[in-house]
Amino acid sequence: VDQLIKESPVGLRLSNGDVEEMSPLKLLIDKRKDLKLTDEQQTQLKAMSETLKETNRPHFKALDSLRNEIRPKAGADVEVERIRTQIARETVVGAVKVIRGNYGESLKGAVALLDDTQKPKAEELLAKQTADADKTLRDKLGGGRGGAAGGRRGGQPQGAF
Question: Which pTM does this prediction carry?
Fold first, then answer.
């Protein structure tokens, strides 16, 4: 994990909104016209999305509280601050990993709602979303490996950090 997170005096650059944009359910709902979703499918996806938000709520709260933890404290012992902020960064990575894992699990049920004419477009949109999410994580958390933090490709969870 040390390789994946670079030291940064600015604190956590990854916002909750950045992580929320990684939700495959949100993407499918947002792209309902492109996917030609039925009213029934939209209703089911919205219900699944609300359940997912509740599941992830504690992890998003953790991200909020970690924003202050990651900022180095002026005047404190440098080594103690390095260790303290590194622990906070690792906790951020863990929270994002759990959230994205939950996203991957929710996607299984969402894909099952789609018909065979909708799935190819959904797979295309989801693949782009995964690539964008991986880039966001690399840019805002640091590190050079793609596919991190429990993302998914083709509806399947990827490997973890």
Answer: 0.78
